[in-house]
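Final report, Chapter 2: Outcomes

The project's central promise was a pipeline that accepts a single protein chain and returns its three-dimensional structure in a standardized token representation, suitable for archiving and comparison. That pipeline is now operational. To close this chapter, we reproduce one record exactly as it appears in the project archive, with the input sequence first and the structure output second.
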Amino acid sequence: MAKVKPSKTSFTFVILILCVAVVFGVKAYLMKGGFAAGGGIKARSKGNPQASVKIIEYIDFQCPACAHGAAVLKKYIENNPDSIYLEMHYYPLAMHKHAVTASIFAECAARQNKFWPFHDLVLEKQSDWKGFDDVKSAFFDMAAQAGLNAQQLQSCIIDPSIEEAVFKDKEEGAQKGVKSTPTYFINGEMAVGGRSLVEKLNQLIPPQNL
């Protein structure tokens, strides 16, 4: 019996199926351990990338001054959406027992492109959770409110690379002279604390725009 050679169309179809399988396999791999195709500094930035005022902030989520500064910045950005670009970095202080855990949860939120909703909730409710002995249940609750996938989050927070990313941020901040939080670099100039932030922003953005 003569062998039937596969047609060119059949070969193309097989290649197409293989490509689809590879795409879905890569997607599954990225999602394993809580890693959606998000994250990176882009997920921790907001505002207009072409803005005249560019801010890099080093934050400790258990720091009361950081919570106050976040509220101030939120108002500035809401009233000047085209004038400000904000980029967030981690700087958990040793004096705050939940600061590292909060940063890990925040970075996992960034991996699901939910950094800012989680960031806002954690800081708004800081006085509620800062005294807890075990803070993870509170963070899981806030993560759910922020729309995170719980299964992905569970896998993400135990991945050692997440904590490494947090401390890499802190090390880079220390090399730039960061010693306390919140520390801002506004158009490259360091400003420490909320008062310095407001003073600098008032120089760059007219107060009537608030």
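Archive annotation: The longest helix spans residues 8-31.
This record, like all others produced under the grant, will remain available to the consortium after the project formally closes.
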